[in-house]
Amino acid sequence: MYVLRTLTFIRLQSCVVVYRQTKMRISRESLTLSSSIAIIVMLVAVFSGSSAELLNAEDEQRLVSFVKNLMECRNIPGLTMTIVKGKEHKTYSMGVSNKETGEPVDSSTLFYLGSLTQSFTSTLIAVLTQRSGNVIHFDSPIAQLIGGELRLTNKVLSEEITLRDALMHRTGLSTGSIGALTGLPKAMSRGEVINQLKHLPLLGVFRDDFSFNQFIYTLAAYVGEKITGSSWEKLMRTHLLDRLLMSSTLVEADDVTAPGFARSYVSEKGVLKEINSKLFDAGPLAPASFMFTNADDMVKALKFFLGAPNLLSQVQLPPPVLEEVMTPRTLLPAGFRESLDKSHYVWPVPDVSVGYAMGFFRNVYRGMQVPWHASSSHGFTSIMWMVPERSIGVFISINGQKYSTTPLTPLQAITYTVTDLLLGEEPWINETSSCTFPETWIKLPEFPDVKLETKEPDHPLESYIGTFGNDLLGDMVVRKSTTDDQALSMVMSEVTGQLLPEGGNVFRLFLDGSFNHLRQPEEGKHPLPFLRFFFDFKVKECVAVKVPDSIFGGSPITFHKKPDVKEEL
């Protein structure tokens, strides 16, 4: 009891300190004991919130039953969820954070956000623009802000790219190919990454085409570092997270398997297996993909993004600035939009994709604007979804699920249901359809179950062996396979795999090791091929290998063969 009272006193004392730091001009002399107590009660109420007006008992039971059923049928180990409406909020914790120990998820359990981190990075840039005294603007050329050291694939892009271009993924630059999986060499600094961005080729048209790019988000964060002299990690901590009282949220961590972190799981041959924790190390690309948070902290984040006037925090963005961050100016490509847009007549309730803003997608659901973002990476899938018109916010994260070509769909089913209940609408997804959503209305895409037919390469396998390097992405080692005398193997950071010949000088990568789940996620089906590798020869000597952006092709990144490196067979 003494500890409880002490913690309560400290919490109230912290509220008073924050209150005194606000711009409310109340002199100490005018505060009587009774008024001080009233203020403390008010602040604690704002901080704590309640669920009194969120959902009635029937809808609450309906939601919990819906989520539990979905978790069971989709084999989801653990889930954390935050719901906000106005000043009220509630958190939900279900399942386990660790399948081996059975540790239950609670509202303090940390879940990985992946690329949802970008919503926070873009918001941090917005905060810095407000605090810069008009030094930083979204439309300021980045080259001017960082002293002219920027060298991209061409002069026009180098000179004209702005923070807005970077934060909207409209540079047209390549995504970085296999670097999206491997990350970057651990010794690289952000400054060194920026100096090597010239190795990213153009994939689309500058300012016309959306091209998701974690390297360019890192460039935007680097601008903040150059202007302030502080790292992105420190800026995020001091200018945003601490001021929002998001004290548990992490943007750097030495051990993501420590107590308090949810473990994550991926489907390998139909069985959920824990992911290699080394894959979470984003290195210098952290501004685009590294953040761990929990349901409690996301209460504050959602209220902040919704512009809650009664939010207890030390950071506020003027509504026009928040709106600018969330206003789309980039249309999504057709293939990307199809997975996010439900405007077709087959859908009972339309959810229309409008475009992409700075770290936020924008949809229109039931006629209301919805800024949102989501991520699916290394077993974790998360979504943050807001309806500002009704002061509604939803955050959900899970730490695994059975194999799906569209891993976001279970969270979409929950999000639509929560939103409908909060709006007083009848949900259009029931417990039965949630298990196969969206297949009640459309057929999900499937990778063809086809065995790759290998063909004789143009040169002996020994000719392809060597170490290939790229100044941005690092080294890749190609050897003779130890398990297949007709194949090669490759190693690049944590990525390993087999290279099977398709004829000519083209090899197809089949991942294994830490990424074996991408090779054979389902039992009884042929392994799924990944990227193609195109080897370049001059006469009879291999000089480089080119790796496209995706399994569908795209602008390749070149890895040049390093001299004086001989690999033993």
Automatic annotation (TrEMBL):
Gene3D superfamilies: 2.40.128.600, DD-peptidase/beta-lactamase superfamily (3.40.710.10). InterPro entries: AmpC-like, Beta-lactam-related, Beta-lactam/transpept-like. Keywords: Membrane, Transmembrane, Transmembrane helix. The keyword Transmembrane applies. The keyword Zinc-finger does not apply. Residues 65-403 form the Beta-lactamase-related domain. The chain crosses the membrane at residues 30-49. It comes from the Eukaryota. SUPFAM superfamilies: beta-lactamase/transpeptidase-like (SSF56601). PANTHER family: BETA-LACTAMASE-RELATED DOMAIN-CONTAINING PROTEIN (PTHR46825:SF15), D-ALANYL-D-ALANINE-CARBOXYPEPTIDASE/ENDOPEPTIDASE AMPH (PTHR46825). This is Beta-lactamase-related domain-containing protein. It comes from Elysia crispata (lettuce slug).
